[in-house]
Amino acid sequence: MAKLALLAVIASLVGAVSCEFSIYAGYGFPRPNPNLPYPFPFPPAFPPASPTPGLRVGYYTHKGRCPQAEKIVREAVEKATAGEKAGLIRLFFHDCFVEGCDGSVLLSGPDTERTAFPNLSLRGFEVIDAAKAALEKACPGVVSCADVVAFAGRDASHSLSSGRINYRVPAGRYDGKVSRAADTFQNLPPPFGDLNLTTAMFAAKGLSQDDMVVLSGAHSIGRSGCSSFPDRLPPAANSSTAMEPKLTGQLTRTCSTGSSVKVPQDVVTPDKLDIQYYRNVLSREVLFISDASLTASSQTESLVEFYAGKRPFYRGKFLGPIQWNHDFEDAMVKMGYIGVKTSAEGEVRKTCAFINKP
After folding, report:
1. How far apart are the C-alpha atoms of 90 and 97, rounded to whole Å?
2. DSSP code, position 314
3. Catalytic site residue 94?
4. 358 contacts: CB under 8 Å, gap ≥ 6
5. DSSP secondary structure of 83-130
6. Which of 88, 153, 167, 269 could pair covalently with 92 via S-S, beta carbons 3.0-4.6 A apart?
7. Closest alpha carbon to 103 in 111, 114, 115, 87
8. H/E/C letters for each residue in 122-158?
9. How far apart are CA 195 and CA 198, in angstroms?
10. Which residue is catalytic, options 94, 158, 219, 326?
11. pTM, rounded to two decimals
């Protein structure tokens, strides 16, 4: 598997491999099998950890550990570009889904998570490093890199949503000491995953299907390389989730110049974390199969319609476009509990890219 992944990465960089190989094999999946009830096998995944008692809101103000910790991280995020802020939200997701929320995605070196095919386009590392450097000056050896990622994800969400999203982050995580590229392939939901696969991969982390729909809304920001959705161009015939023809034509022309070209995930409000994503799903103006598949079941489609403002209520909730902000906050907090390390399992790194020297 590791050799296959390495080949996919190299091939994608030199352009010497087909789009189908890079998007499927690069993520560690075989080609879709039309003879199965679902096109991809459910991969094994690391089980989620139970919520750790050590996490608490205000962890660094308690007992004066580092009262200015969250302020320092927020100041670093405020200096970031919109693209970097979008990257920080994605960085939090990619960290938590592999090895848990332990900063393992930040570790540098051969065959680490950040070298894996699904992580080659991650952004925000420099923002995390700047925040950590400032924290080490203010409170040496106190604030973990895992917590910096969690704080930064919250602050980026707050900024890109124009303040509509804002929540308190339970903290007290420890940094992991393990980071393997191969682990990303089995744990990160791929863009070509159908509803069954994506739901199963979220469930493996203790997240519900509703959580998956809520967190998918983060695709209203950021940009994606054309290499991430070649299976959507041209659109599949007779498919209810095929891409809208006008967008298909635009992307076909844009992506014809090369698979490395990046396009906005939301062409309407590309730098705003908002509910436009759900309207795009309904109008079939989304890039990935995983996004388009949200209309594949009545339950997920109803939730999409609710958040898009097309349905007046959902399971006792009202005002979907407003409710989404609160649901996103809750889902981000819930995700932040995945696989949290204890002091016996982790450490507080001095530099986020490297484990501490013995």
Report:
1. 11
2. E
3. yes
4. none
5. HHHHHHHHHHHHHHHTTSSSSGGG--STT-GGGSGGGTT---HHHHHH
6. 153
7. 114
8. CCCHHHHHHHHHHHHHHCCCCCCHHHHHHHHHHHHHH
9. 5
10. 94
11. 0.88
